[in-house]
Amino acid sequence: MKNISNYIRISSLFLVTVGFLVSCERELSDDAVLATFSSTPEVFTDGPVGLGSDFYFPYADSKFTAFSVDNEEGYQSNASIRIDVPNSDDPLGAYAGGIFRVDGAGRDLTKYDALTFWAKASQGVSVGEIGFGEDFLENKYIATRTNISVGTNWTKYVIPIPDASKLTQERGLLRYAAGTQSTNGSGYTLWIDELRFEKLGTIAQPRPSIVNGQDVNLTSFIGVTSQVTDLIQTFNLGTGNDVDIIAAPNYFEFTSSNPSVATVDTSGLISINTSGTTTVTATLGGNDAAGSITVNSLGTFQLPPTPTRDPSNVISIFSDFYTNVPVDFYNGFWEPFQTTLSADFDVNGDNILNYTNFNFVGNQFANPTIDITDKSNLHLNMYIPGSIPANLDFLISVVDFGPDGADGGGDDTRQQIFFNGSDFVADSWVTLDVPITLANKSNIGLIIYENINGSPLSNFYLDNIYFYGEPTSPSTPAASPTDPAGNVISLFSDAYTDVPVDTFRTPWSSASTVLTNEVVSGDNIKKYASLGFAGIETLNNSVDASSMTHVRIDTWSANYTSFALKLVDLGADNTIGTADDSEHEVTITNPVTGQWVNHDIPLSDFTGLTNRSNLGQYIIVGQPTNANDVFIDNFYFRN
Amino acid sequence: MNFTSKYINVSLLVVLIAVIISCSPDEKQEITALNKLVLEDNFDTSGALDSSLWSYEIGDGSAQGIPGWGNNEQQYYTDRPENVIVEDGMLKIIAQKENFEGSSFTSARILTKGKFQKKYGRFEARIKLPWGQGIWPAFWMLGDDNNGADVWPNIGEIDIMEYRGQEPTITHGSVHGPGYSGGNAVTKSYDLVNDRFDTDFHIFGIEWGPNYINYYVDDVLYNQITPEDVNGDWVFNDREFYIIMNVAVGGSFVGAPGPDVVYPQTMYVDYVRVYE
Question: What is the ipTM of this complex?
């Protein structure tokens, strides 16, 4: 490399000298600005040309040593670029790939129309990608020709420049990626020589396109961003053959017909600002690109309900509120029959799965499969934009891969859940909550969604796909309270010294209600099974809570729909059942189930409780009556 | 041009090499001054063609007894403005992909038969060509047939420009006559090398005089054909010829139209001029 480096210095010095002489002859005015970027066309002839000493940068996951200079083989010479493509199981990297970047200022390539080279391979291969414009910096003007058929004789190849006027100072003069997809994993050698930019004069008939030249409709919402995809420039070569070049967004000029609805930036990212319709189109080098995206923005996106279940009870497949298990894919693109495409988007950070052109699709999470033995239900939120097809017939299948943990193999079982139009509301999220009835559910690997019986559902969104269990008892203790002991009168808590309590279940409590003492991770809790109402009494040592401001109690239930607490003060006579008693009941409706709920109720809410210096009775009430189990902990007054 | 396909065969190449060798400067060459303008259509009047000069040939050749115009061509020729129109100072002959009268493509073919016919002179046109697999434009001439008394190839054919849409850098110039027609025509091809015929206008012409026809593109004379070059009677000294311009789709010269061809495909003619 040292020799090459010296050669470059000499060469660039020469160029500078020529420029100087010319400028002397011309007597340029002071205003004239000399072009400062080399337009040297050669990249590699008998060696690298003008690239500097440090020009080769392999892709991070490629085999770093794949590139060398071959000093025996060459096209009408004794030197060429040699790429030793590794076997697919090579531990040092499964493919060859990298870039040639000028070690120094970029080149002015505006007067050329193609990168050309001669190539051959040790066997006939299809080389995945060859192009230019990648510099591992901004990568602004990447252009790539894909699947180039290279035989065993030297042949000239042409990679047209999508729009040479952009390449005023390009450092990325070559990019390539060569694997063994076409050779069943067997490595081979690829030689490239006479690599240079040229003005062929025969690169013509540019036909740029976006989104595969299709006119695409996109239903979307404020705050959503979408990428314009499939950016291609097609030329007709002098041979009469068409060649497609994948062109970076910066070659294109994007336009939104109604920028107040949505804007599109130089990278082709569409950002939706308000409701309405706009059409995004593009040009390349002044030529209209085939294809368009008509955005129909429905306005503010209604996010799905925020999940509330305790993460410890959830195995999440797709949700921003939980940590998802490893998922192989949300859309496996099963060929040849699947038509479903993905147009996933996010709204202010909430990712949404969007399936379009739907017939069926799968979410696979088989590495590893998941064990939902202690989970009872599948939950997902689904949104059908536009309208609900009249004959909607929608099937969700949950597949257990069986003991072999693999799809197929004869031991798979599946549960099918059917939905029709009455299960959905157009332009709204619905919650699909399905009890899992599979006998074997320790190797769940796949959820399949499909249209059946000619159902025409085409487009829908999914979010918050997770399995959950409704545990019947808490698996963790309630959070330990932090109120200072001096500010607390505790009836039941491991965190404080409790005052004397006569009973935690009076005999007149609901007959079905059974009280047991339980321990979770060393924490004592009380369980009221089949709670209707239950009395707790401190008649023998009434509690003076006159200096307290709040009553606190932690509850946990898998199945209550309301929870109430009544406080009874014995009055000045300190005797239950007399005229000076006062009482009040506060009800919490729809407390969150399956997790500890901390109720911290101002005593001022107990408006009927006119006195609280002789509290003697506390009644807890759960609904549905006699059909809910409630656990309590940390029952105390505080200020 | 007409009736059968033409290929450059190996023996023809040998002939051409001989021609080139014989074209040394000290050989007898007719140095002509063909500068007197006798016909000029600059296509400056938008609308239909000048009917005093041009006629149309309509159909797929069946009415003329040669379905596919003798070459398995796939177009149906019309005189509709969709296929032939003068606008923007140019003649446009437009090949369309459309189902029409049983054909899958339409186009146009115009000729000066009976309206402008001439023996000898400099015939040239400035043309930007269409492109794509199977597109076959031509600027050519046929000899007068004495009201049907004489038949091709005895009447002679001079192809000033023929071109395959899949070879956008190459034009072909040919003569057909008795003993050297169809696949045995005398042809030479000219490759622009660093340019193409479908991206800008180029001048295609011949200088035709007694016992010679010179072929040129722009300012490059690329061939001369004389009686020594043809394997039969020289039929270009005894009758008037008329001009034909057309765009065919498909046919034995170009093969079937490709699936990726972009339609419409248009041959733009800036002018046709004849000097003597």
Answer: 0.83
